[in-house]
Amino acid sequence: MGARRTFAAVCILAVLWVFPSPPGAAQAAELVVVTGQGTTPGVKEVAAAFARTSGNKVTVIQEAGPELEQRLAANGAVDLIASSPDQIGDLVKKGKVVADSVTPFVLAGLGLSVRAGAPKPDISTVEAYKATLLAAKSIGYSRGCSGTNAAEGIEKLGLAAQLKPKTVLTTSGPVVEYLARGEFDVGIQQTNIMVGAPGTEYVGALPGFLNKPCPSSVALIAGAKEGDAARALMRFMLSPEAAPLLRKTFVEPAKL
Predict the structure, then answer these.
(1) Is residue 158 part of a domain?
(2) Which end of the chain is more exposed for a tag (fewer CB within 10 A), N or C?
(3) Which residue range is the domain that position 139 belongs to?
């Protein structure tokens, strides 16, 4: 009987030696990632996958303006940021972001939506899109990257003067929220923010050269509490394994 117990103990030790506990399993890291509006869906998707495989906890918080500044002022409260290159560039200048960690993350193309129940216009070609804009009673887009790119496209179509009287520039929050409230009839923004938004229907991507995507980057926060785990999450976000997860949220990886 004693020999059997000894043999069993040896077998257990052998299994533990061959299949040790995953690193950090006893003390999982608790990561915090702050995101811009355009990166939130993709970051949530990859963060959930990383948490499942690593055992670490990842909290994704969409924040901007004074709230973001306040959060970053608390040393160690944030580990990573995924946002527009301009915003991250400003944070690099302020010493809030590790400069050499800044890396292109995703590209989000532009799309068009209408209010739920409204007829879906034809935007399959540049000419059809042009006709849709001329026929619309009102058009809305943001003051951010997607709005800037939408306005550039309208300028190239020679429609800026004609459309100006019926164009609404949103101030904050997704364009689809304004659209759902009926503040305009047609909304243009990044596709990944528009698809599936309540009270609206996504029509499709803008055609041809008009679909100029908005870039986002990811970077390590200076003084990150969970530096090693944050770098591991960042590597996963930029890996080929993350690409299909990001595409589920209607963005393209910026680099592989």
Answers:
(1) yes
(2) N
(3) 110-210
